[in-house]
């Protein structure tokens, strides 16, 4: 039977999911597995579901709780990236998100004129020395400090894409495929033996003067993640807000970076660093990126309309760009 590319598209985790596989059988045979994989991740990690494991841990902060293997794996990654990003990636920012007005799923309030701001005293900056997770992987348990509230939205989407891609590629032996969750993309095997996958990266609105609306990334194997301060944004009585919280201020970041796309081998790593660059900006974020993410490549758009291209300093690039005319290049 001929092998052809087949596509499935659906909504989960408050975003559009796209899966393309080279399969000799009908895509309908794989859709229950694919959709169930995302649904289970959402049911486990969403802060918007009262029954989720994330919500249970938040309600029981200060107490030791038994956790699933999946939660233990994600929390281990959270500890690792807190250290690698020198405290910029921090999951204990739920009070800051709610303080800024992000109290319900963005999908349910995106059409509202205004988000409600919680009128509480300003939140104190988060300490940089360590992420206070007492994680016991041998006993599958964890304890957070009392009153610490976590949001895992900055990591679980890419973690889910990466896990599903591994399952399809390794266990189900799909020779080529693409999984895209709202701009977090993992590909393998190329679109054919002779062609790479073509991934479109939209330019943010302020950078579109006299330029194409999108850039194209040609990628055979690898990952790309994009973070943006404009798409998931809103206004309240405090002004313009977005979902990327700076732990130094416990408020939406005010850096000059409005969008960052990071290309590399591991999607979770790409997503983390795309967010870090948006939070820290060029002045602080670029030195941090160069210290700890030498194998990654980044495209950074700033609010003045300029495009910055950070080339990997180790192991070469994973892909090739079409239509890329950067204003500044860093090697």
TrEMBL record:
It is an enzyme of class 2 (transferase). Keywords: FAD, Flavoprotein, Magnesium, Metal-binding, Transferase. Its cofactor is Mg(2+). It catalyses: L-threonyl-[protein] + FAD = FMN-L-threonyl-[protein] + AMP + H(+). Its EC number is 2.7.1.180. Belongs to the ApbE family. PANTHER family: FAD:PROTEIN FMN TRANSFERASE, THIAMINE BIOSYNTHESIS LIPOPROTEIN APBE. This is FAD:protein FMN transferase. It comes from Paenibacillus anseongense.
